[in-house]
Amino acid sequence: MNTILFYAAVLVSALILLLFVxxxxxxxxxxxxxxxxxxxxxLGAKWAWVIWIVKIIWRSHxxxxxxxxxxxxxxxxxxxxxx
Length: 83
Description:
It contains four helices and no strands.
């Protein structure tokens, strides 16, 4: 995870530095604008992300409780086919 964050920081730093180079900024400006629009689109759907993470957490807990409560033969449908 730290490597991904490091590469993202290097990419952002490189794009910021390229914005100040004459002539190159005309190529970099649309990329920066596109990244900004993408970030705004992801953040604009924040309630969808909240609902998604709540569903993931809920399903994980239900699955954990099922595995703690139910016996193995009810959890593994392939058990009866094993020799």
